[in-house]
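---------- Forwarded message ----------

FYI, see the Tyr recombinase domain-containing protein record below. Original note from H. follows.
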Amino acid sequence: MRAGELTVKDEEEFSPAKHIRRGDVVEVVNPQGLVTLKLHPPVTKTSQVRGEDTVCAPQADETCPRRALAAHYARNNPGPNEHLFAHNVSGEHQALKKKAFLRALAKAASAAGIKKVHGHAFRIGGTLEYLLRGNSFETVKTHGRWKSDAFQRYLRRHALILAPHLQDVGTLQHDFIEVAIATDEVAEDQDQPAPATV
């Protein structure tokens, strides 16, 4: 997501019609039992009227958004109609301001001895992370809500990203191709269409 979709500009007041609320986050379980978190900011950069859904999934390591949200809820406990990242400031809940968020990131990056992180780096970094995991370009494009192929201009480490897509995938594919060719040859010999396969 874009940092501005999860924060409030410094000069703005929180508005439930414009900014993401805790109630805009729901858990969804698919038929296979896989859990995702669906976030629906009511306004995004590319959808100013209806907003857009985006999803994230639990992870096995410290990057797990589900655990991070649970920790945030336990500490700050925003109400369902408050900003998703409302936190206690001088005894009252305030929406997370974008500049405060970026300052906290800069402080954390400095403490970790890494380069300062900018807001747009999340979309670039998220794109790279999912591609390095072997997800297809179309999956990453859909997940990132990219309306065009513009995300490709941000890509780095092309050799690592393309490696899973360029490999010989082994005997399973070879066996499938042999079966498919044999089926087609039999069908041609019998002058009948090939049987449907699953």
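H. also flagged this: Residues 181 and 187 are 10 Å apart (CA to CA).
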